[in-house]
What we know:
Blueprint: H1 8-19, H2 23-30, H3 34-48, E1 53-56, E2 59-62, H4 64-91, E3 97-103, H5 111-118, E4 126-132, H6 135-142, E5 148-151, E6 160-172, H7 187-191, E7 195-198, E8 217-220, H8 223-231, E9 236-240, H9 241-249, E10 254-255, E11 264-271, H10 280-291, H11 296-300
Parallel strand pairs: 3-4, 3-5, 7-8, 7-9
Antiparallel strand pairs: 1-2, 5-11, 6-9, 6-10, 6-11
InterPro entries: LysR_HTH_N, LysR_subst-bd, WH-like_DNA-bd_sf, WH_DNA-bd_sf
Family: Belongs to the LysR transcriptional regulatory family.
Organism: Paraglaciecola mesophila
Amino acid sequence: MYRAKTTIEQWRILQAVVDFGGYAHAANHLNKSQSSLNHAVAKLQDQLDVKLLEVKGRKAFLTEAGEVMLRRSRHLTQNVRDLEELAANINQDWEPEITIAVDLAYPKKFLYPALKTFYPASRGSRLRIIETVLTGTEEAITEGWADLVISPMMPRGFLGEPIAECSLHPVCHPQHELASLEGPVDLNDLQQHLQLVIKDTSKTPNEKQGWLKSEQRWTVSSFETAIDLLLENIGFCWLPDFIIAHLVADKSLHRLAIKGSSLRPVICYVVKPKPDSCGPGTNLLYQTLIQQSAFNTSFQE
C-alpha cells in the first residue's frame, strides 16, 4: 500500500510562503515561527528530492519544478478542504447528493439560471440531473427515487408549484403530404401517417398519454432525433414550442393545423416527492427553482 512521503500541512506552508512573498510574512499569517516554516519546506524538498524554492535576498522564489508542484498542490489542498466541508455538511444533515428528475417538456432556459444561482450555496453537494418522459416522470414522483421532480403532470396525492408553461404542437416537414392538405388536418388523415413518439422512460411504459392513434409509430429517445427525422421528411411529431419555434420560423418545419386542437398546453410543476425527508440543500434548490421560474412575478404578488 502506498504511503505518502509528504503532508497536507507541508504543502499549505509552501503555498503560504509563495503567496505572502517569504517566510516572515507567511509565519505571521499562519501564526507559526519562521524557523518551523523553514524546516517544513526544507523537509518537503528533501522528501521529494526536488528543489522547490530558492531564496534571493529576503524573498523566496519558485523554481520551474516548484511552479508545477505548487499548481498541483493547490488542487490537493482544495480537495481536502472540500472533503472536510462535505463531512461537516453531512453532520449537519446537508445532503452529499441531490437527484432532480426533469421532464423533457420543461423549458431548460429556466433550469440553468436556477442551477447557476444554487451552485455557490450548494456546499459541495453532487447534483444528478436525470431527464425523464411521460410515465417515467410520474414514477420519479410516485416511487420517490428523485429528491425533486419537474413534471408536466401531477399524480394523485402529490402537490407541486407551477414554474413554467409551454405547448406541444404537431409538426412535419414542409414537403410532407400532411403539409400540402388544404385547411385544418382531420384526425383521420393523421392516423394514416407515421408518428414519431418520444420514448417513455418508465421501467414499465404505459402509452396512455398524448395522441397515439397512428397505426405507424417510430419511438425515439430524444427531441433531437425526432427533429432530425422530421427534417428528412419522415413522419410527424408533437413537440414543445420552445424546441421548434426557430425551425418553424425559418420554414424548416411546418406547424400543422388540426381540427379540434392544434396544440396541447402544458404546465410544469416542481414537486418534492418526499417533502418530510427533504434536506436543506433540496429545499434550497426547490425555492431557487421557484424564484427563477416563469411565474416568479405571480409568486411575489
